[in-house]
Amino acid sequence: MDGAEGTAGQPGPAERSHRSSVSSVGARADVLVYLADDTVVPLAVENLSALSAHELHRAIREVLQLPDIALDVFALWLVSPLLEVQLKPKHQPYKLGRQWPELLLRFTNAPDDDVAMDEPSLQFRRNVFFPKHQELQIHDEEVLRLLYEEAKGNVLTARYPCDLEDCEVLGALVCRVQLGPYQPGQPAACTLREKLDSFLPAHLCKRGHGLFAAFRGRGAKTGPGEQGLLNAYRQVKETSVSGSEREATLGSHYRAYLLKCHELPFYGCAFFHGEVDKPAQGFLHRGGRKAVTVAISLEGVHVIDCREKHVLLGLHFQELSWDHTSPEEEEPILWLEFDGDSEGTPVNKLLRIYSKQAELMSGLIEYCIELNQATEPAAPQESASGLHSAPSPSPPPTQRPKLRRQGSVVCSRIQHLSTIDYVEDGKVIKRVKPKRTTSFFSRQLSTGQGSYTVVQPTDSLEQA
Hints:
Blueprint (H helix, E strand, L loop, with lengths): L7 E2 L18 E7 L5 E7 L6 H12 L5 H4 E6 L4 E3 L6 H6 L1 H8 L4 H6 L3 E6 L14 H16 L7 H16 L8 H7 L16 H5 L8 H12 L14 H13 L7 E8 L11 E8 L3 E6 L4 E7 L3 E6 L7 E10 L2 E10 L3 H17 L6 E2 L5 E2 L30 E3 L42
Parallel strand pairs: 2-6
Antiparallel strand pairs: 1-5, 2-3, 4-5, 4-6, 7-8, 8-9, 9-10, 11-12, 12-13, 13-16, 14-15
């Protein structure tokens, strides 16, 4: 699930590459599964057309020699330049691949020519339903590395928008992993200078300045991101370990990177593509629309400005109500409702998100809420998705110090949104604990433990 974006979503431009995963079909087939670092796991399988995602997942774990926790941490995805879908264990990847054009027509606005040419690849990625607090219990270095590689890719492509200070800290950890411990004047400084976009998002790279000169102590002027990266690289701590090893394994740096990413409210989200109305501006009160990414996780919903790389709206599930509309011959809309004020008067605010994936987003929100409710008891239990989950402990107050800084990219910018405001005169709606104010919506949150189905374009798809 993820898209520029989720359980089904639209990938960003940097991720658009045509990569076939099946080289032959018959009694025996060669299947290529791509990891987060773009390496390939080749698998020779029998009866591919009937093979389930769970069986392929097990085969990948055996090849990579991953521990049992990898079953919960990772999932198989079908990914193309136009759409990304996280598969359920019972899904049959080959059959879903054959139905790919149907999925594109239902969940994207892609032109017919692009639909005809599009081909998905199989990828092994983080499971959207794996609680991030459980990552703290992982010690296997290869599992940590795969999580690190995926998070790094999302930071560098600005799928995870970050403040400059956070990008510098994260980039310094990448420097440590790739270049080793910082050493003044080391030859690797040239590599750092030449491959700056391997450490910082492209929009923060300033290539016209003297980072290499700064390593040599020439005092040349550096760009703010470059100098901050250099300073952060110097400060990366080396943790000693017991035994004959002289320094910590890379696992400690992978963990440090993930812990920093945990401060980002959209880490581990499913990403979807949509558009929102711009506030009316100018003498003619012209508005228009802006492209956004809708990030949905077990914790809440964030709406991200694709162009400006910052959050427009961030809400925990307790702070919102929602619904979606998909009338015939009209554009599907995901409605988000939240409390606010208008010139000091308490109002309910409605945000319209135009997207062909509105139904998917609404279903994912509902499923995440049900999954959270299922894990509320103290004893761990198996959730509807098959994951063994435990209640999420409250994060320590010191965990997110930088996210509250003024002007942070992760803070809401409601003034940049065009919302419909109304007072408390609506009907009782779908509610999320604790109860909120009244609303227009009439759908009620299901009390059942139903299973969230990622994709259902046809009746036969669920058999797939």
